[in-house]
Amino acid sequence: MSGGVERPPSALVLHGIDDVDDYIWANEGEEALPLDTFTHVFHLMQRGNQAFRERRYEEAIHCYIKANSIKPSDPIILSNRSTAYIRYSKYLIERPPSTSEDSPLNGLDPTTHAELALKDAEKLINLRSNAVKPYLLKASALILLERYEVARGVLLSGLHMDPSSISLQSFLQDLGNIQSSLMGSRYHEGPELSDEFNCSLCLKLFYEPITTPCGHSFCRSCLFRSMDRSNKCPLCRKVLFISPRTCSISVTLNSIIQKSFPEEYAARKSDHESMTNFGVDLLPLFVMDVVIPCQKFPLHIFEPRYRLMVRRIMEGSRRMGMVIVDPSTNSLADFACEVEITECEPLPDGRFYLEIESRRRFRIVRAWDQDGYRVAEIEWIQDNNPLEGTPEREELLELTRNASEYTRSWMRRAKQAAQYDQRKLEQIHNLETMMPTVQDPEGFSFWLVTLSNLRPQERLELLHMRDTKERIKRGLIYLNTEHGCRVQ
């Protein structure tokens, strides 16, 4: 089945996205960063703002993402990144088809950029609920996602906060106009359910349908699972230059299915979500190496089975487990670590570039194969820590504070040694951003051992360990031995 992608009219003027805010040199108070770290953020924001004003939106977004990884929840960073996502999404939507054919783009599609803009705007509203711009950004992102009624509610909430805002009043009027124009184009009679609405790959009702340039429609997950093995259309075998993030869902076809066959669609959605949302105690597994909590690192995904797994994860919780094959048993290690995908970039050849942050450790209760990769039932593991208010707890906190002071001194020396090596400085900044507070001794103990280059078996032993105090002491020994520094 062929069909175009229905989009908001390009004539619609979105509000609050004409420019980004300048980043002010202010680094004071409890959340102040070290001077060199703040300087790095400041320069990233300057480069991002310049790129935005020169309409190099992808470069601007990249700078804002880096700045946010160092200083999360900064209102200016979130606001500027949301604005850049919206502007780039609007640019992609309004890009003429002829231009797309002559100069195809790789990267995220307009819908994904709008969704990312929406997330940043929602965070911004929580931080600055008394400001107008967060409401403008959230409404703009919702309009790009064609969620007009929700956008109207956001604008009304903003006007409740500031009834005199001209920007919100004007935006609400523009939104009313676009909704009125859309009312005349609604479908009055729904089609009958037939094979025309079934995917030719899974033989089920379309879910998140994509229409290819050659005019054939498939479920998004079905098409890209097929393209893991061949980049040709499954029906006519024409070569397809598309990726999961550059090809948008056919909004028109999807809307017809949802409105005409609501019960069948609900059942199809439930079936799909059972494959993407694994539940609290189930995790898909990436078999590679031993990972411990409080790490941050890149990962390239190229195997077809893991490409499928990553796409399903990104549609669900964005989390998976990382585990090693234990050489002593030649089977999966019984302890592993949950990781979260914080950034996901599809590459033109079908691979994924991921940014990963490790979270919690777990024990594998049982594991099985699902579509070529492993899935496990798990049990979350915590240390056996002393109770709050006990002398043992105070002793543990004191050890954590002393270890924290020592490692901060080590970090300062490491920065000085790497002051002319930008790559090493960024690695140190990444380590700093993952450092837990001293009020979380268990988290700090894991972060501490990430500073040393340990063998897989040593990392696996640390995952098994349930004694926070012992892990901190061992981390200090590793650091002292590896770097030749005397532990205070």
CATH topology of the largest domain: Serine Threonine Protein Phosphatase 5, Tetratricopeptide repeat
Largest sheet: 5 strands, mixed, barrel
In DSSP terms (H or I, runs of 4 or more residues), the helix count works out at 17
Q: Can you write the helix and strand succession as a string? A: HHHHHHHHEEHHHEEHEEEEEEHHHHH
Number of strands: 10
Describe this protein's structure.
- This protein is of the alpha+beta class and 488 residues long.
- The protein has four domains: 35-178, Tetratricopeptide repeat domain (Serine Threonine Protein Phosphatase 5, Tetratricopeptide repeat), CATH 1.25.40.10; 196-273, 2-Layer Sandwich (Herpes Virus-1); 277-380, Archaeosine Trna-guanine Transglycosylase, Chain: A, domain 4 (Roll), CATH 2.30.130; 391-480.
- The chain contains 17 helices and ten strands.
- A five-stranded mixed beta barrel has the order 3-5-8-9-10.
- A hairpin with a 5-residue loop joins strand 1 (209-211) and strand 2.
- The longest helix is centred in the last third of the chain and has 27 residues, at 391-417.
- The model is unreliable at 1-10, 185-191 and 484-488 (pLDDT under 50).
